[in-house]
Amino acid sequence: MMRLSIEAADHVSKCLQLAILLEVSAYPKPGNVHRTADFQETKYEHFLASAVATGPHFRRAARRGAMVSAGKIGLEKVGLGAVIKSAVRDVSRWQHGGNTLLGSIILLSPLAAAAGTAFAKGTFSVNKLRENVKKVVESTTPMDAVDVYDAISIAKPGGIGKAPKLDITDPVSKKKILDERVTLFDVFKIASGWDSIAYEWVNNYPITFDLGYPYFLQQFQGAGDINVATVHTFLKILSEIPDTLIARKVGLAKARDVSLQAKHVLEIGGLLTPEGKRGLWALDGDLRRGSHKLNPGTTADITAAVLAVSILSGQRP
Q1: What value, to the nearest 5°, has the Cα angle with vertex 231 and ends 291 and 101?
Q2: What fold characterizes domain 2-205?
Q3: Which of 116, 178, 188, 249 could join 66 via S-S bond, C-beta 3.0 to 4.6 A?
Q4: Contacts of 130 (CB under 8 A, 6+ apart)
Q5: pLDDT 10s digits, 103-158
Q6: What's the pLDDT score for residue 170?
Q7: For residue 164, what pLDDT is reported?
Q8: pLDDT per residue as tens digits for the range 160-207
Q9: SS3 assignment, position 37
Q10: Nearest Cα to 245, choosing from 152, 155, 159?
């Protein structure tokens, strides 16, 4: 059992690292860093280094999930907050491009623990993965919340804004969390109205499992090209779910406008037609103007989660 759980954790970690690498490599992923485009301060290589840095931490989460399946610890002992914090800290040590993977780490860490549980039991399926994710995130603790606040402080993400309650920039927030027994799940409930990553957490990943995953499979099976499938999935999510990072930076109206542009690119064929390719490259250029305030970074994080589910379920490039 011990060896099986170690092997399961290693497998899960590799799957999630590959998901990050494939997401950042997909091109042209409009408005984001990809293999043919950088930001001035954050480059493609920074994401590659970050993906490598996450490995031990996803492995740790999966190992804890395997321990849950063996009855050695309870779900509340998984320690998602500590996993997220240590992963973000390591990412910051392995590259100098600023915040690269905070959102992806927050989304993928519960997937790692949930997959570790399923693989250790030999019962993996996408439905079982989703069931386990729900159990994992709903079992988080106040200490998990404090650790994630620390992780956000380490990553220093752009466009974070102010929260009406338990604001990350308020120095007394962490004390309130512990005193009032506010769990990480509770914190994300508060944020779910303006942040799609928090929304995924508290609603059992509907964008990932219900929208992105089936669309990715359809695109991958149809085109036989993982880059096409990834870019089109990114566009599909963006077209239906206005990016909340853009919304926080420049307003919801502009985020909706970007969604309409993404929808149009898909309607004219995306990477599968000459007109679609021209439209896609034009959109990529448009979203890069103005210090990348129109960077659909949240959509990229959710696309990484879609890839993670796909790879965990056996899809390979």
Answers
A1: 55
A2: Triphosphoribosyl-dephospho-CoA protein (1.10.4200)
A3: 116
A4: 114, 204, 205, 209
A5: 999 999 999 999 999 998 888 999 999 999 999 999 999 999 999 999 999 998 87
A6: 84
A7: 67
A8: 666 667 877 788 999 999 999 999 999 999 999 999 999 999 999 999
A9: strand
A10: 159
Q: Which residue has the tokens 């386990």?
A: 132
Amino acid at 20: I
Q: DSSP 3-state assignment of 38?
A: coil
Structural domain spans, the chain = 2-205, 211-298
- In three-state form (DSSP H/G/I as H, E/B as E, the rest C), the secondary structure along 72-137 is CCCHHHCCHHHHHHHHHHHHHHHCCCCCCCHHHHHHHHHHHHHHHHHHHHCCCCHHHHHHHHHHHH
Contacts of 71 (CB under 8 A, 6+ apart): none
Spatial distance between the Cα atoms of 33 and 135, rounded to a whole number of angstroms: 33
Least Cα distance to 299 among 151, 103, 129 occurs for: 103
Radius of gyration of the chain (CA): 19
What is the arithmetic mean of pLDDT over 77-88? 98
What's the distance, CA 102 to chain centroid?
Answer: 8
